[in-house]
Amino acid sequence: MLERSALRLEVIDELKERLSQFVRDFAARRPGCAYADVRLEVRETRYGAAEDGKAKECGDDAEMSFGVRVLAGAGGREGMVAPGYFGQALGGGSLDALQEVLAEGLRHAYERAIANARRKQEAERLFGSLSNSLHSTTLARVEVCRDSVVFPWREDPRGIPSEQMLREAVEATKCAAGLSPRVLSSHAAVASGLIRELFVSSEGACIDQTYPLTRGFFYVVAAGSGAPEAHYDTLGDLKGYEVLRGENVAGTDFLHFAQSLTEETLELAQAPPLPADLGEAVVVTDPHYNALLVHEIVGHPVEADRALKMETGYAGRTWLYGGLRQNMLGQRVASELVSAYSDPALQGFGHYAYDAEGVKARRVVHIDRGIFTGFMNSRESAAIMGTEPNGSMRATDPVYVPLVRMTNTVFAGGERDPHSILREVEEGYYLAGHRIPSISESRENFRITARKVYKIERGELTTLYRNGGISADSKDYLMSIDAVGNDFKVYPIPNCGKGQPMQTMRVGNGGPTMRGRARLAGGAH
Amino acid sequence: MIALDELQGFARDGLARLRRRSDVEAAELFVAANEQLIARLNYTSDIPCNGVHEPKSSTSFGVGVLAVFRAGTERRLGFGSEVGSLTPDGLDRAVTKAARNAVLDPDFHSLPQPPSEAPRLVDYHDPQVMALDDETLVDLGWQALSGAVLTYKDAGFTQTLIVNGDVTVLRERMAIVSTTGIDVADESTILMATITSMIEREQVKGTGWSLATHLAKFTPRDAGAQAAQSAINTIGGVRLPSGGYAAVLGRQAVTELVSNLLVPSLSLDVVDAKASPFCGRLGERVASPCLSLYDDGALPGEIASKKVTCEGLPTGRTDLIEEGRLVGFLADHYTSQKLRSPVREFAPRNGFRFNNGRDFRRRATVFPTNVVVCGHNEAPPEALLAGIERGVYVGRLWYTYPIHGLGPGDFTGTIVGDSYLIEGGKLSRPVKPNTLRVNDNFLRLFNDIVGISRERHATLVWGSEESVLAPEIAVGSLALESIAQFLA
After folding, report:
1. A111 and chain B in contact, CB less than 8 A
2. B336 pLDDT band (50/70/90 cuts)?
3. Do A84 and B50 touch (CB under 8 A)?
4. What would the mean pLDDT of B454-462 be, rounded to a whole number?
5. Closest in B36, B59, B101 to A58, CB measured
């Protein structure tokens, strides 16, 4: 009888010191090798999924993968070093030959780095003065850490049978169908597991982090007065299975979360669409809406790799940074009521102790009472910008190269009672819950839809609309904020896309209730 | 990379091993090896940079097992996979997972049967790409970068230059066998250079690309040069006021709309989830009679072509929209079985496991391949412009999403480059990038097509698996909003 899986988190216990030495030896023995690191991850996950009251899948699996970075140069133009990378997915059967597989990965990364450095040198002749910006890859210095961190959980995901997760998913979709014959379709997926990440570098870093990750996803479609209304939402946190029992930002278990979303969707399906163009108005946005808003108009623009143009062809640049001498650092970008920061120490999807470069995680303030103060960065971007690394590099999977990523990126809470913020509005709109964003290339303009839009009349919520949101230039909107609530919350955002190949990352985003001015954007034509 | 014979041998041996299990009623083994190699570019003339920023790869190989297990009177369907181990033990681990994971899924009917037709596409990969080494990968990246930088150098531009994008090489091998009699193997190679370039001071952006299945036809240097030249061509862009404009959609804009809006709406799994605006509309007119659209995974020389699907079935043409009428959906075997009726069947030509290769860790679901956009009375490109007194040529759209879900059809996105004002039937002046947002409805827009160009080019958008063979399309009206007034 085979074991349920040959792969366990504990394999890292046996590997880490050996691997740490192995990477140091590799870098020391290869000519021109300036730096090497290896990220290795083991994941043990259980899951269940259902559609329309029917079981679809469940599982209990373990996976492993690794990624390698090497910085190396072949000599020539003094100090010219370049990067090379390699990543591979592995399984339990790979353990016996792991050292050979890693050695092969390091060799490929090294060969790529050497070839890359050579071509960078040759570009001087080919490009002339346009080669002046080609620099030798440099990482900003950081404290070299050796640490082991285990984030706590109450209900060990490994103790929850996948059959139970499947039952809960089936039950959620049955519950949705039972609410109304207008429910056309529903889908539920729950997953919970433990992840253990090892980072070792030729500098001597050896960091071992273990954390739980639990999520529940629900999607529902309901018929109503127009096109069917479809909505989805996610519960999740870096905690054990207790997340789906109610220890989450919604304060409800998965079944009631699904029920609540279904009820909202049924209500919305019969609501009128927001008219196409109501012009500019006072808008009050709730914390769930602001989670996506801060993600799109603060979180992404404060990523240093965007600032350095590395995402120009993919996720875009940032209006906060034209260049080393022309940028918005130290300038007002929002009203003095607005502060925003990223904090991996907060509980949420972006919670961790060390990033994918072995840098200690820390809070990064982006907007301090309206003044733009700084970017999330990597060791390389910090070296270019002349700042300290702040531990913001993550990869969806170690096979991919880490990117500068939001952690828990939020609007800071204020002091106002959210109800009073709303009551003060003579005429305006209240946006509850986020839906879908579309953002300009440098994040200078946005259109983001809400799940629900209410008319505010004399401080009271009146008509409910569906298919509506707001659109504005980012700076204008941030400057218009005139009230910030004390109801700060952090929500899970499971699907932030960035990079090539696109990596879909989980991040935490949130904030309090806020009030500003924007153009209402409803159903087009 | 693991040889195709080895994958196929392992699959056949594995099936023989599975047949000996008394609890297995039916089974399918999908064995694959994938390598995605990327040279990602980041050149900035005024900020320290690497040029070729990330020469990298991701690799995986293994087996996925989908099996029907007998459990008393029930038939349970289970899937399990094992990474990095093409051994009997590895197979046993995958089968153990499949058995443990099996569920009673009333929507499952059967595994695919062997096809009566033979695959149209055979032996279409490039052995040279299969053998491509680290140095060549790096060199392809520098070729693309050189194409752009030298274009700027020759034109005398020296400041605020950006060259970004990547050269991506995908090599895939797979074998699939099943108890129903499917036994087929496939290998494919794809080369893509997708380059974006800017002169930031001028606020201009250009795009260039090269797509090929063989190294000899791959031209990353040209893609880089095209991106830089396109940026240069759009210097001096003008702002336009908000309003409705007659428009010609360039190939990238067409691809953005097709990939993000039309293709999801035409996928049978989205129909099954009741999220498509085309639910219940089969046979009806859903677009202008000018428009036809089909998917063909067996087109010779196209990058999204395969010999067989990841369910072992031959690829081929699936008509989706025929002269404006909805005639079909993209389908995999599972969904086509679930939704078939006595009067309607869906050919399962689009069951794939794409995930930076053909991923044995997932079951097949619906993916497009080569999506061909064509028209009734196709015209030369200048004829599309000729009838427009004042309008906009939209070369590139950005973040184009169905802002209220697919159902209502509302979408938005911004115009980011390669775009021009049309005056007197000709391209007159460039449009300043990032200053116009499209707020429209794609169900309306595709009914408002007034012309389609004859010439089509394979085009990609970021994050999509499919290639769109896109023409230029003229539409009667496109709703544009002037934004970002602070951009001078």
Report:
1. yes
2. very high
3. no
4. 91
5. B101
| d(CA B448, nearest CA chain A) in Å | 13
pLDDT at A6 over 80: no
Sequence-distant (6+) residues with CB within 8 A of B38 are A500, A501, B54, B55, B56, B57, B166, B167, B168, B169
| ipTM, 2 dp | 0.95
Q: With residue A220 as reference, give the H or E element that holds it.
A: strand A206-222
Contact (CB<8Å) A166/B103: yes
Whether residue B230 has pLDDT greater than 80: yes
- Among partner residues B162, B405, B462, which is closest to A230 by beta-carbon distance? B405
Q: Which of A104, A68, A83, A67 is nearest to A32 (CA)?
A: A83
> Is the pLDDT reported for residue A4 higher than 60?
no
pLDDT band at B463 (very low <50, low <70, confident <90, very high): confident
**A84 lies within 8 A of chain B by CB:** yes
The average pLDDT across B416-438 equals 95
CB B454 within 8 A of CB B228: no
Distance between A87 CA and the closest CA of chain B, angstroms:
5
Main-chain phi, psi angles of A241, to 5 degrees? -65, -10
B46 contacts A56? CB cut-off 8 A: no
Q: What CA–CA distance (Å, rounded) separates B387 from B3? A: 55
Q: How many secondary structure helices (H) and strands (E) does chain B include?
A: 11, 23
The per-residue pLDDT for A434 is 98
Query: Using an 8 Å Cβ cutoff, are B162 and B8 in contact?
Result: no
CA separation (Å) from A308 to A301, B46, B62, B160, B269? 11, 10, 38, 12, 40
Mean pLDDT of chain A: 95
- Domain range annotation of chain B: 4-233, 243-482
pLDDT > 90? residue A484: yes
The mean pLDDT of A171-185, rounded to a whole number, is: 98
Asked if residue B480 has pLDDT above 50, the reply is yes
Supply the pLDDT for residue A323.
Answer: 87
Write out pLDDT tens, residues A245-286.
999 999 999 999 999 999 999 999 999 999 987 899 999 999
Which domains are assigned to chain A? 11-45+62-149 (no CATH), 157-197+211-269 (3.30.2290.10), 277-521 (no CATH)
pLDDT band at A5 (very low <50, low <70, confident <90, very high): very low
Q: A299 is written with which tokens?
A: 């979180």
Read off the amino acid at residue B328: G
Query: What is A326-364 written as a DSSP string?
Result: SB-TTSB-S-TT--EEE-TTSSSTT--SB-TTSPBP--E
Among A92, A65, A19, residue whose Cα is nearest residue A196: A65
Helix axis angle, A98-127 to B134-155, nearest 10°: 20
Distance of CA A403 to the CA centre of its chain: 11
Q: What's phi and psi for A299, nearest 5 deg? A: -60, -55
Topology of domain B4-233, per CATH?
PmbA/TldD fold (3.30.2290)
Among A313, A438, A523, whose Cβ lies nearest the Cβ of B164?
A313
Mean pLDDT for A103-132 is 96
Chain B interface disruption, residue of A99, A278, A310, A466, most B CBs within 10 A: A310
Inter-chain CB proximity B51 and A123 less than 8 Å: yes
Q: In chain B, what residues touch A53 (CB-CB under 8 Å)?
A: none
CB-CB neighbors (< 8 A) of B407 in chain A:
227-230
Average pLDDT over residues A205-212: 98
| Window A:378-407, CB contacts with B under 8 Å | 384, 399-401
For residue B279, give how far its alpha carbon lies from the nearest alpha carbon of chain A (Å).
10
For chain A, percent of residues with pLDDT exceeding 70? 98
Cβ-based contacts of B277 with chain A (< 8 Å):
227
How far is it, in rounded angstroms, from Cα B277 to Cα B286?
Answer: 10
